[in-house]
Design goal:
The chain is an all-alpha fold. It has a domain of 34 residues. The protein has four helices and no strands. Helix 1 runs parallel beside helix 4. It is globular, with a radius of gyration of 17 Å. 3% of the residues are buried.
């Protein structure tokens, strides 16, 4: 059974990760290929988890995963997201700027 401090860390991390992924999806999503961004996030998340967890710990973590429930019944509330959103939105705006610059370079309109 996880201790309260562990659950709080898990919950905070879950909220930040969820909000970050929402911001990233909004920044990267292309109207003509929205699933490509989702698949890219899944692939990146899989690579991250493989690097951080690896095969030895994956079994243990996945066996515990069903018992991990956010205090808000596994949903991140708008209030929770708003607490960290300003920082993540600033990060998202920076990514948008990078995307616009890259698109201009691809179009031959180097800024």
């Amino acid at each position: 059974m996880p201790m309260a401090a562990d659950v709080d860390t898990i919950e905070r991390t879950s909220i930040v990760a969820y909000t970050l992924l929402n911001e990233l999806h909004e920044v990267l999503a292309l109207p003509k290929a929205p699933d490509d961004v989702t698949l890219g996030i899944l692939m990146g998340l899989s690579m991250f988890l493989d690097d951080k967890v690896g095969p030895m710990r994956a079994k243990r973590l996945m066996s515990e995963a069903p018992t991990i429930v956010l205090k808000t019944d596994a949903h991140v509330t708008a209030e929770q997201m708003e607490r960290i959103a300003p920082v993540l939105r600033a990060f998202g705006e920076h990514l948008k700027d990078l995307r616009v610059k890259a698109e201009r370079q691809l179009d031959g309109r180097v800024a």
